[in-house]
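Work Package 3 committed the consortium to producing structural models of liganded targets before the mid-term review. Because experimental data for this complex are still outstanding, the team generated a predictive model from sequence and the ligand definition alone, so that downstream docking and mutagenesis planning could proceed in parallel. The input record is reproduced below exactly as it was submitted to the modelling pipeline, together with the SMILES string for magnesium ion.
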Amino acid sequence: ALVARDVWKQYLLGDVTVNALRGVNLQLPAGRFVVLVGPSGSGKTTMLNLAGGLDVPTKGELLVFGRRLNDMNEAQLTEYRRREVGFVFQMFNLVPTLTALENVRLVAQLVGNDDLAADTLAAVGLAHVADHLPSQLSGGEQQRVAIARALVKQPRLLLADEPTGALDVETGLEVLGLLWHETRKRGMTVMMVTHNTILARLGDIVVRLRSGQVIEVAPGEAV
Amino acid sequence: ALVARDVWKQYLLGDVTVNALRGVNLQLPAGRFVVLVGPSGSGKTTMLNLAGGLDVPTKGELLVFGRRLNDMNEAQLTEYRRREVGFVFQMFNLVPTLTALENVRLVAQLVGNDDLAADTLAAVGLAHVADHLPSQLSGGEQQRVAIARALVKQPRLLLADEPTGALDVETGLEVLGLLWHETRKRGMTVMMVTHNTILARLGDIVVRLRSGQVIEVAPGEAV
Ligand SMILES: Nc1ncnc2c1ncn2[C@@H]1O[C@H](COP(=O)(O)OP(=O)(O)OP(=O)(O)O)[C@@H](O)[C@H]1O
Ligand SMILES: Nc1ncnc2c1ncn2[C@@H]1O[C@H](COP(=O)(O)OP(=O)(O)OP(=O)(O)O)[C@@H](O)[C@H]1O
Ligand SMILES: [Mg+2]
Ligand SMILES: [Mg+2]
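The resulting structure, written out as tokens with the ligand in place, is given here.
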């Protein structure tokens, strides 16, 4: 599903270069539940943003489902994201003026799946707060709306940035069960960032980052 | 430090009443590291907001360091917060146009502790990103700036809403060590929300919430 060859992501801050990713090499097959782990600041969110076409590498090659993302222009990246990618952001990024249900429906409509919205919201345990605005939701509830919104698209690639970070253990496992079900049932490819060492081991593949480099790729315990 | 008697927090959404807290009774001594746990949506953030004077109870009595918060007006609550409380928000709430260091310094200046800002930022491991804006920081880095900003005030009461939620285990433990040090060294009272069951046990006192009620108050393993 994903091939990264010597991928770098650099930011310029004044006259200092910040190397968020330094020469990442990676090959991930489709339909797997990939877990991305590593310390704070090691480049996990950056990795996800590149895989989802939300950002472009400074150098190197990045292919997802055979498409060369590093060559695409804005319009092509937007199209790629819309069709293929569901994103659960680390900061949720919900539309503040829309209710929980409307936030999910907004995406459901884009893919002609209007009625799926209410079902997906129920699947993450939020039927009872469907008409709350984000500001009227708890942190974990906002996170689950973000997850529902990404899932309702039935994307080929789900990029989840610490999707259980604001959830208690029980709720987090319920959510993971959902993601696993979609992976096994519909062949969805998942790349999930987590710093929960227990959840990390539950993936098919565990990719470990440190200081912008991949230092290990190992099978998880799902295997 | 804190006495809550039959505290309720209710929200009106259309014609539906949401009971975020339903008759909470609690007595917590000062200088303790109190951990607040419970499922997503159980009322933890609401509890913290009331203790910090960011919000007012709908009914009931709430006394912190002997002051009756439920009787205070806006000006009195603002003064209470400014003098006594350091808050680490679940969503960080950094000033987006100020750098990491400036965000911390803003608060340090309020309490005449200007030079403490750089030291506190270093204590949470962020000296190397002091001049990044929040949008140029990773999730865990933003969270640590929020922690530094709360600590630099040397508050009597530190309210931390899942302060390690975006951190890997190692970094999270470093941060907790910092909070513990402040508690033992300067008698700071801490109320920390976490859904990490291991960290939860490290408190002096563990308060368990469910559906807006306190269902258990027990000693932690720090005792
Ligand atoms: N302004 C509001 N209007 C209506 N309901 C609200 C409002 N704020 C919070 N709630 C509801 O009150 C309940 C408790 O919210 P709170 O944020 O305290 O939960 P929490 O324990 O912090 O959850 P989490 O672990 O997910 O952060 C939630 O069910 C939420 O939907
Ligand atoms: N726009 C930017 N400009 C400059 N530096 C940046 C920018 N965005 C990210 N960085 C830096 O790049 C590094 C990697 O960031 P990234 O968000 O990928 O980390 P992360 O692994 O997701 O961390 P966390 O676990 O804390 O969320 C960080 O040190 C961060 O300060
Ligand atoms: Mg991140
Ligand atoms: Mg909360």
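Reviewers should note the following from the model. The CA atoms of residues 106 and 149 of chain B lie 8 Å apart. These observations will guide the Year 2 experiments.
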